[in-house]
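We store chain and fold; thus.
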Amino acid sequence: MSLQDGEQRHLSCFCSLSIEREADEVLIMLAGELDLSCEDAMRAEVARVTESCPHAVVVDLGDVTFIDSPGLRMLLDFASASRRDGFELTLIGADRQVRSSIRITGLDRLLPLAEPLGKEVRR
């Protein structure tokens, strides 16, 4: 079952996703705990999104309260899909805990994580 524009779907007891489409751009908003419990459902939704061959996909992590290694792997696999399928991927809105998990694991070098608004990008 595919989501309608703006519809929210619970991927597990603690994780939900909603999608908004505009032209050839897609916004995926995640909420809750991005972990093993939502992996299969998340992968299915991502596959549906990428089938439409979008030019750009933005994943909003602003309402993600927890991320573990399966959650990080899902983001990494999404980044790999973007390179393979030729769409631009941007991760936005990650809070301190999520951003820290990404940086501690070294995935900040592999994931297109946008800096929070009002922060300078350190080089």
User: Anything to note?
Assistant: The first helix runs from residue 39 to 51. The first strand starts at residue 8 and ends at 12.
